[in-house]
Amino acid sequence: MKTQLITNPSTVDIKKCAEILKNNGLVVFPTETVYGLGANAYSEEAVKKIFKAKGRPVDNPLIVHIHSIDMLPTIAVNIPDIAYELFNKFSPGPLTIVLDKSESIPGIVTAGLKTVAIRIPSHPIALSLIKEAEIPVAAPSANQSGRPSPTTFEMALSEMEGRVDAIINGGNTEVGIESTVIKIEENSLTILRPGFITEDDLLTVLPEFFKINNTINTKKIESPGMKYTHYKPKAKVILCEKDLINIAVEKFKNQKIAILTHKAKLTNNTVINFKNIEEYAKNLYKTFFELDKNNIEVIIAEKVMEEGVGKALMNRLKKASGEKEFIS
Ligand code: TXA
Ligand code: MG
Description:
This protein is α/β, with parallel strands linked by helices. The chain is built from 11 helices and 16 strands. Strands 1, 2, 3, 4, 5, 6, 7, 8, 9, 10, 11 and 12 form a 12-stranded mixed sheet that branches. Strands 13-16-14-15 form a 4-stranded parallel sheet, with helices on both faces.
């Protein structure tokens, strides 16, 4: 398939891409989290193409993207007030809420579930594209299934060129990790996938009696996608406590290694030092991509505290490493 590559999209370009979506084609577009692989969420035929282009298991449901809260009732039913409050506070932005789905959304989008995951992205290109298309857009991250999500145009090209109708260049994404996915129950809210919007952020909106559950802690798998391997570069990723990095480096000295650090102060040409947790999260996938290009065999990644955005970052690092941690 010939893929149109679009940089600095004009109004005409956005119209063209919206037409592709309306005609059940595939468009890769930037969001503030990661690049998405979009298709018409109303069309089974279009959504089938997403699963094919990604090699994604069909039991892993997709997030439906809309441009405004006004579109909510067209794709969800029984919407609780708290969902409106959360969307009002955090949208457009990196928050996805799972709600009861309306009849308009075909079962292929939700992998047969009665619920649908919904997000209003804040990237201006994403918003104008969805607005122009006038349809909800189903969009998983634009990577081959199992791989790190694309956070740069170059990564999006490398994952999807030849498999989609168009790819829009939006430069590097702002957040760098996928949205926080939550599900609202009667008096509680469950974080199905941690992200840039943290538990503390959510608490600022929730009434006091509301409890927050963390599926990651309970090991209960509610977000079907969480059971698959994810975010894996070609290099082997090994999680490592700050104080053990030097011992780990010694152990892997016969392989081509790179070290990702945050607190550990190491000086070595294999070390990539991130200023803070946000920078670590923002640049993680991009760094994986660059290290793969340089044929790095082992990535030693310093662990971070599982609080705030650190929770989301550790979730991605654990998956990327297959939960492998260095023990001396
Ligand atoms: O930031 C993001 O969320 C990006 C951008 C493109 O918006 N999208 C993204 O989509 O990360 P994807 O398909 O890679 O991840 C969607 C996650 C999966 O873990 C999936 O299992 C979960 O959302 N999910 C989708 N629908 C669900 C539902 N009805 N119930 C529970 N989990 C659901
Ligand atoms: Mg994904």
